[in-house]
User: What shape does this take?
Amino acid sequence: MKDSHILVVGAGLCGSLLALRLAQHGYQVSLFEKRKDLRKADISAGRSINLAFSDRGLKGIKRVGLEKKVEELCIPMHGRMLHDKKGTTKLSPYSGRQNEYINSISRSGLNALLLYEIEKHENVRIQFEASCQHVDIENNSAVFVNDTTKEQITINADYVIGTDGAGSVVRQAMMKIRALRFSFSQNFLTHGYKELSILPDENGTHQMEKGALHIWPRGENMLIALPNLDGSFTVTLFLAYEGGTYNFNNLTNPAIVEEYFKSDYKDAYALMPHLKDEFFENPTASLGTIRCTPWTHKNTLLMGDAAHAIVPFYGQGMNASFEDVAVFDDILSEEEFDLDKTLKRFSKERKLDADGIADLALDNFHEMKAHTAQDLFLKKRKLELELEEHFPKDYLSKYSLVTFNEDIGYHEAKVKGRAQDKVILNLFQEGKLTDEQTLEEKLQIIDKYTGLYLDKDILIL
Amino acid sequence: MKDSHILVVGAGLCGSLLALRLAQHGYQVSLFEKRKDLRKADISAGRSINLAFSDRGLKGIKRVGLEKKVEELCIPMHGRMLHDKKGTTKLSPYSGRQNEYINSISRSGLNALLLYEIEKHENVRIQFEASCQHVDIENNSAVFVNDTTKEQITINADYVIGTDGAGSVVRQAMMKIRALRFSFSQNFLTHGYKELSILPDENGTHQMEKGALHIWPRGENMLIALPNLDGSFTVTLFLAYEGGTYNFNNLTNPAIVEEYFKSDYKDAYALMPHLKDEFFENPTASLGTIRCTPWTHKNTLLMGDAAHAIVPFYGQGMNASFEDVAVFDDILSEEEFDLDKTLKRFSKERKLDADGIADLALDNFHEMKAHTAQDLFLKKRKLELELEEHFPKDYLSKYSLVTFNEDIGYHEAKVKGRAQDKVILNLFQEGKLTDEQTLEEKLQIIDKYTGLYLDKDILIL
Assistant: This one.
């Protein structure tokens, strides 16, 4: 069965990791990608987009043995550096445990590493500039076209795996099969985002603390920044399209953009001399969640963003896709490389966790832009960090459950984490957590009520 | 402004009622429909599909002054007639108030009535067999083709309203506009449905009680029947596609169909001599919910199923669409016939209620097939009927809120009704409703806890 020919549509992060793992198993793999080879395209012309890389992503990377090489691309971020309107900063650690942190990593650097590794395998064919036009799901074949030369090629495979992202062409082909009763949703936020930058200083070093993810939470909107290896930061503005004093629809000239940044992000503005150019050169992108089911039909499967695109607020998009590959790989081994069974089981068993992280990422949209700056939230985080520090094995915050505990599924992390958050906030509000209690007593109270909350969905009687 | 030309795409129930109301206001209306004129097509060849018509639908019908004529098409149904496996029946009334009942009505009869009324207006052009191919939302125009003659026609209007159902072509055109960030979902149930029939007896009269909606609840699956004016019943089987002993995927020959009906729907089976033919002649249809937002862009609007298709378990699909027309008409008057403002306000203000009834219809899927037969549910319904009978102004069950209280929006009905249901079931389970209490005391307890439940989403501390 390992002589099957598998067509992987899309050589982004998910498709590349998957193709590499399949190649390691000995399958014949065709990896087709719409864009140019990002290793050859003029990198300086594109923007270096970075991502948060954490334990679930690492689980996928370990599967292909690249953890050492990936580590070289990582910049550890130990917490959120909160910037208030005056420019005062405060670090809010991600965990009370020393070894729990996330990493800033370059998307193109990571993708390039995977592509180089894939090329070491003779059983993989990589084809760039091959835009998927049509997938024939009945016959496991797909038609690609080179947008420049207009050359067309049809690939006949035994299996087709669509890792072609949020706008997946493979998914669109599945949606057209009436008998499949394909459930699908795309939901956009009221906010969009725009990438900007803070360049290195004259010595080529970072102009802000590089060991943190910087956030300027402003209630409805926010700015964030992640460090790059070259000393720069990639800055992202998350802003509503309409409403409020400033929004994407009314930031129409350099003077207003300047006014907004001076008013709301003063300290960042001081480090962004190119702001006014970048703001109008760089696109405004939308923020959407895509869910669908089933992910498989006949010999075709969707994976990664093609199956479950999420908003970026938990830093889990790429991590979830890499975990997809690990989950797929586990099932493949369990099923002794029976791909038919693996496709079906993956589609069924992974769905709940994909929905879980989609929900969590939406939760965090509100948490990051507003709650991170609120007293009650800060009080809760302070207590959680103390609990994690003193009872490292007994207390796991929602953030830790999601980010650092890859053996717990996203769904379980969501259910437990949401309950715990709700209970702690309620206990504070009702004055049931007091200074007289020891830390251990507080932990017991939180555990007790979280358990009660999870047992019943209401407890009013 | 009343000289605007409005193109209504789709002459089903919603489009026909809307076109009639717009014509009454004096607008120039083009009403285009893909199918043949249902008044001329061979009705006996098609199936007579009936619907539940209730107060919200009546609100729309009153708007155009047709309530008397519609009443002639109605067969009142005062409750659910529950059939157990032995064929024993029990009536579960819809309300403890005498004047609250729903009606069985023929879809084609009602649609024909609306079309005849529309034709009395010179300012309306109706065109059948005109299938919408493309909508140009920037220019308020649409291209139609006659599937037989292949003749093409382009209509240029001032406004386009898509009432073209769950598979709306107008909605698909909106979905393609990237800048609109059109949120959309289609979700299918695990169950499908098939229409069957019980014919009149030799005297042309109904073979079962005609004043009720008949239900054979069987846990995962169910059969229902609604009376027709000609003495027949339209029977609908709601059945899972897979799983359980019998499902749509394994009912593949007459013998198994017979076995299933004999086993689960014995008394109905005795009245269905044509079952085995009908089962294989009639299609199996899927059950889906469609939600989207926004419903408007430029001068185009979606309405009815095109904007919010729901599952049929609350009998509210057509009622919701007719209520759309009434809500639209209210806003139109308030805005003094400014269509630009009306489109925007309707899209914004009606959405929450459309989501409300979509959720309620899904709730009722579970209630009808399973809960209606359970003791706790029957105990709850018994208490609710007593409360409605003795305190007609003070107690409204969820069913009454949704079905008979058109002045309360679906969303409000959902929130209040769900809370009340949850509270009553909990009170029974915890033994807080006892035989020693007077009915008035029971009402007070229910009101108190429903209020508490609505005030906070948890009350555990």
